[in-house]
Amino acid sequence: MSTKGRVMRKRLCIVVHPLFVLLLASISLADTLEEVSQRGTLRWGGDASGGGPYIFQGADNQLTGFEYELAQYLAAELGVRSEYVNWEWEMLPQILDRGSIDVVLNGYEWSEEREQLWSSTIPYYIYKLQLMARIDDDSIRTWEDLRTEQGQPRKRVGVLQGSAAERYVESRFGEAVELKKYPEVTSVMGLVEQGQLDATVQDVPIAIHYGREFPGLRGVGQPEAPGYYVAFVRAHDEPLRLRLNEAISNGLADGTLRRIYEKYGVWNNDQERLAEVAQNWPPVVAAAPSRWANLPHYTRLLLLAAWTTVKLSFLSMPLAMSLGLMVAIGRLYGPFWVRWPLEAYVELIRGTPLLLQLFVIYYVLPQLTGVSIPEFWAGVLGLAINYSAYEAENYRAGLLAIPRGQMEAALSLGMSTTTALRRVVVPQAVRIVIPPVTNDFIALFKDTSVCSMIAVTELTGMYRFLFQSHPRLMLEFGLLTALLYLAMSYPLSLMARRMETRFKRIAV
Amino acid sequence: MIEVRRLVKNHGLLRVLDGVSLSVRRGEVAAVIGPSGGGKSTLLRCINGLENFQEGEVQVDEVRLSPSGARREMGESLRALRRRVGMVFQQFHLFPHMSVLENVISGPLYVLRRSRDELEVEAQQLLTRVGLADKLAARPEQLSGGQQQRVAIARALAMKPEAILFDEPTSALDPRMAAEVISVITDLAKSGQTMIVVTHAMGFARSVSHTIHVMHGGRVAESGTAQQIFEEPREEVTRSFLAQTRAN
Could you give the CA distance from residue B7 to residue B53 in angstroms, rounded to a whole number? Predict the structure, then answer.
């Protein structure tokens, strides 16, 4: 159960997090610039996992990337050493508030929402969005080709979860395309190359850097929708912000930034505008709307995602139970050449993480077989297979708990072993294991959150998405999400208790 | 109709049956008595194929069971045999998830695939016969031990077996409940039902059976009519066993 434990802990940590963050944010008000010079290091946060050309492991396994070098340059300008802190990308602003780092510098686009919570430096890079499709796919030649005629299947467009690309495609195309969100960049490109997706929209640096690894892809049309990468400091760290602005301006003026960017192939004419943009920075931000203004809308989104969670669990659990029952019967009553492969199956499935199994089903299987499964069904299948191993063990224990006399009495009436199992032994075993199976159902129900890693937007996935785009409401979203989970799992517990009492009088 | 020939069964190193031969004619009631551990129950379980054996043969009409090894191919003949030979266990083994009625019709319903309506009428008659007509809808756990055993008898009868094997049918019951069961079995015997009864209840064995077999150490030590066995036992084994049961 170790994998389950881990997954659940992760979810828990995401839900609990906002409480701490808000609490701690109000405490750390000391002057960070002073702290930085006393400490002698500038702590900056980024996420190196799949992060080329921003921050990534180079050929010699050393960290490198244009932002990595930029940070080193900035630290040097401040007269301190650069200290890199690696963290999950979407949580970087949260650890900034917690005081673990001084600045977030990792492809963070400027947005009003973010400016309301943190202070941005002047932009250090102007990015655009690049549409990419397969070389041999003639149906996509311009951005507008993403819209299909009515009746035609919609184009499937993959984006990085929480990215500017996601917001742009959503606002420009809305329901006209099938938008799929992934936690990682390169896998999306792979999915387009394999044909599971029709196109992807990526920040230009990403398209440049990883395009080489996917020769089956090409850029479509001109890059669009410019935006600004900025570094964020805590809201009240004005001295640090000004000092960083100064350093960026100097680097722009003396060509240092250009040198760094050219080294990674990401310099282009757009960057000429950086100095001009810096003059009126930051843009004026409208007063924050009331916290509650959009809550009904978000609640609706969370409810829709909760419905996906319900569908995932209620489709996968019956599958897991039937599969598990068959495995258990095969292990107990089958011939030896059925027994040991089944035993191997149970051990293999129980001994590997659900997430890994989902990745195999969703990413690896299509490469091997050429048959791809839509992400929702891949999720259902993955959960069903994973839990079938646990259910097999439950049912095995249940079957073993039925006295031998039951089987003998059935056989002595002339029943075949199969009939005896079906009519006499299994119905009793199934009743005995109702409590453990229900417990597993509740666990599965929460494990559905892992499906957000293969682009199924279930409740936890939606929560992550919402708090990334509206970090201000992290606490509200967290509470809402927790409430929704509770509202779904509590009836399950009640149902389980009722079934238990109902079957207790029948149990042997 | 039931022929057991030189049956040998080993439990590991222990020889449980050591060349048992026995024959039961149609309509005959045979009782098997003898000290515990003599192989009585094992013999019964071999006759309807719940246990395999190493040597010898069991034959019920034209259906034959031979020693282990070949048993896999015998699945069909095993079932054919069990359809003819019912069994009643010491611990009843009613199906706890079914009502009394469902227990009784479970054999013909799932094995012979007969229609439920027809079977329910028959089951009602059978339950009347064992004195439980009012317990149709009850669950096994709501019944006393004696009632459960009578349901088990009705369940075996529902298959219309040619013979019924009783494996210590009253050993798990207190005397009053045992009496109910004995009276049902006695009625059955009078109606001409072929049966083999393994029992420790000597009075019952004596009154119900035409033939008595005394088993000891995995062999049939002595066979004879009830009167002969109880009044003029020929073998020392029989004499000491009977003396012991009387002393108790």
Answer: 7
DSSP structural state of residue B129: H
- Separation of alpha carbons B139 and B148, rounded Å: 10
Q: For residues A199 and A184, what is the distance between their CA atoms, to the nearest angstrom?
A: 15
Neighbour tally for B174: CB within 10 Å? 11
* 3-state DSSP assignment of residue B67: coil
**pTM metric for this prediction:** 0.74
Q: What is the pLDDT of residues A164-199, one digit of tens each?
A: 899 899 999 988 999 998 877 788 998 999 888 999
Q: Return d(Cα A116, Cα A74) in angstroms, integer.
A: 24
Enumerate the residues of chain B whose CB falls inside 8 A of the CB of residue A412: 48, 50, 82, 86-87, 156
- Closest alpha carbon to A117 in A285, A249, A316, A271: A285
Integer Cα distance of A489 and A293 in angstroms: 29
A401 CB neighbours in chain B (<8 A) are: none
Please provide the DSSP assignment of B88-112 as one string. E-TT----TTS-HHHHHHHHHHHTS
Instruction: Decide: A85 and A41 in contact? Cβ < 8 Å.
Output: no
What would the pLDDT profile of A331-372 be if each residue is shown by its tens digit?
Answer: 999 888 999 999 999 999 999 999 999 999 988 888 888 888
The Cβ of residue A382 has, within 10 Å, a number of other Cβ atoms equal to 27
On average, the pLDDT of chain B sits at 91
- Contact: B86, A424; criterion CB under 8 Å: no
Cα end-to-end distance, chain B, whole Å: 36
* Beta carbons of A413 and B111 less than 8 Å apart: yes
Do the Cβ atoms of A442 and A492 come closer than 8 Å? yes
The residues in B 195-234 lying below 8 A from A, measured between CB atoms, are none
**Burial letters for B55-92: b for 16+ Cβ neighbours within 10 Å, e otherwise?**
bbebbbeebebbbeeeeeebeebbbbbbbbbbbbbbbb
Token reading at A484? 């929704």
What is the value of ipTM here, to two decimals?
0.93
Chain B residue numbers with beta carbons less than 8 Å from the beta carbon of A413 are 82, 86, 106-107, 110-111, 155-156, 159
pLDDT for A389-422, tens place per residue? Answer: 999 999 999 999 999 999 999 999 999 889 999 9
- pLDDT tens, B227-242? 999 999 999 999 999 9
Give the closest residue to A401 by CA, choosing from A439, A432, A424, A441.
A432
CB contact under 8 A, A408 and B91: no
How far away is chain A from the Cα of B141, in angstroms, using its nearest Cα?
8
- What is the phi-psi region of residue A370: left when phi exceeds 0, alpha when psi lies from -120 to 50, beta otherwise? left
Instruction: Report the candidate in B9, B50, B3, B11 with the shortest Cα–Cα distance to residue B28.
Output: B3
Q: Examine residue B108 and say whether the peptide bond preceding it is cis (omega within 30 degrees of 0).
A: no
Six-digit token pair at A167?
A: 């917001």
The CB density around residue A69, as the number of other CB atoms within 10 Å, is 20
- Longest CA–CA span in chain A (Å) reads 95
